[in-house]
Design a protein that fits this description.
The protein contains 10 helices and 15 strands. With 335 residues, the chain is an alpha+beta fold. It has 2 domains: 7-160, Aminopeptidase (3-Layer(aba) Sandwich), CATH 3.40.630.30; 163-330, Aminopeptidase (3-Layer(aba) Sandwich). The structure holds coenzyme A.
Amino acid sequence: MTPPNWTIRPGRDSDGSALIDLIWSCWSAYPGIRMDVDLEMPELRALATYYAANAGSLWVAEAADSVCGMIATRPLEGTTWEICRVYVDPALHGSGLGHALLDQAEQHAIAAGAKRLALWSDTRFDRAHHFYEKRSYIRHGAVRVLADISNSLEFGYAKPVNGVEALDIAAVTSAVGRLGAILIACVDGGASVSFLPPLSPQKARAFWLRVASDVGTGKRTVVAAWRNGVLSAVGMLDLATPENQPHRTEVQKILVDPGARRTGLGRQILRALEQEAAAHGRSLLTLDTRAGDAGESLYRSEGWQESGRIPGYALAADGTAQATVFFWKHLAHPN
Ligand SMILES: CC(C)(COP(=O)(O)OP(=O)(O)OC[C@H]1O[C@@H](n2cnc3c(N)ncnc32)[C@H](O)[C@@H]1OP(=O)(O)O)[C@@H](O)C(=O)NCCC(=O)NCCS
């Protein structure tokens, strides 16, 4: 398919009526959404001025001389920037224009110093949620009540540009697609992480949904790492240890997307998990990994001790049984 021929340019106040039409073409696909520009969104009549006054920017996409997309961004408190007003003409949904617009706004915000990106999305816009989750945003915070004529409720989404964060149940649930893709890529690449290839997206998704449930019930902690705005690594702690091991936790599933390896993410995840373990009062950490894998040198370099190895412990993709190494680490000062 030939890529659509659009251009993205700075928005102008004179785009007002075209932007109002564009927004309505998106909103009218959903039941219960009403639009009264003068009552609730008078800024649409001069939107470039509105964003300029808020130290932000507005862009408009045009195809065949007519407006077919828009996006804006503005700084919030600290180094967080908000992504706003992401709308693409329904005729161009699925064309890649949404990605191009989001690239434009994210790159502008990051160049201006953004360390974290945040946005709000109406709970009815399920297609948009899928898009933001694909772009590594995770659900964040409480649902916002707008008390407007459309009775809008909004999900908060956010992501760090670079960095590691612990995920709550809502965040893990919103990340199952991205985390599933990382798990599948690692398993396809030969990683020894309980599964054998080919791992289907459904099975990977089901795995992360079970993990989300465990996070919700306090049986696990999950941390994830972003690199240049892309969720690229994950790891977790099993906190559901027996009653005679309340001081122990097991590190599991440190997974780095193959395209983001050797950039320090594995080490960041491991250190974040050790901090999480300390925060949960766990002083003894254990893990196991396939002998000779990259993880072995990572764990040794972070001060983990080998307790031994068991030959033929787990199957590789070719059906051969391979050795596993067991490691432990004592944290000197758990909280
Ligand atoms: C193991 C894994 C998590 C490492 O992640 P990573 O982000 O590439 O690692 P980092 O960039 O943080 O590197 C940390 C250290 O790990 C070691 N390491 C990483 N990749 C390595 C490799 N290919 N060969 C040898 N050592 C390697 C090195 O000691 C490295 O330190 P250095 O860069 O200063 O030399 C990653 O390879 C992975 O996801 N593997 C598949 C899944 C897996 O096996 N997980 C372990 C389950 S217990």
